[in-house]
Amino acid sequence: MKTSLVLTLIGPDRPGLVNAVSRCASECGANWLESRMAHLAGQFAGVVRLEVDAGQVDKLETALQALEGQGLRIAVARGAAGPAASVRKVGLDLVGHDRPGIVRDISAVLARHGVSIESLETACESASMSGEPLFRARAELAVPATLELGPVRLDLEALANELMVDLDFADA
């Protein structure tokens, strides 16, 4: 029987961190299924999903904990098994002048409608003409199959007007 493990990783960035994690996984017979990793403010941060035989979970967790001696903090959570809810994928793209609270405001609207954020990528960059900070976000959302998109779209468009950002909300 296989067990899914979700790892969160953070530590000062340096070459070899991914190799150290993947070596532990490989030595325990784990399969590396998914990951998202980034260099943020001098830190390496990542999320990884592994699948491993149930009998190897403790050995893998022990091996991963040993990496903390190399400055890499790792949290391990066992994945939940169960039937997936019936959802449809919807994309959300946003761009506008940067200001605190954009992610909070957008995520509050989504949560109020029961929409989950499956992935979110954000960046702050200089606008091409003015050089002012420009905030970009791209999200993949899981919308319950029974939820009408109209009210969600209306709330997001109202918020986009208030925030003065461009927002695109469409089936993925």
TrEMBL record:
<feature type="domain" description="ACT">
    <location>
        <begin position="91"/>
        <end position="170"/>
    </location>
</feature>
<dbReference type="Pfam" id="PF01842">
    <property type="entry name" value="ACT"/>
</dbReference>
<dbReference type="InterPro" id="IPR016867">
    <property type="entry name" value="GcvR"/>
</dbReference>
<protein>
    <submittedName>
        <fullName>Glycine cleavage system protein R</fullName>
    </submittedName>
</protein>
<dbReference type="InterPro" id="IPR002912">
    <property type="entry name" value="ACT_dom"/>
</dbReference>
<dbReference type="InterPro" id="IPR045865">
    <property type="entry name" value="ACT-like_dom_sf"/>
</dbReference>
<dbReference type="InterPro" id="IPR050990">
    <property type="entry name" value="UPF0237/GcvR_regulator"/>
</dbReference>
<dbReference type="Pfam" id="PF13740">
    <property type="entry name" value="ACT_6"/>
</dbReference>
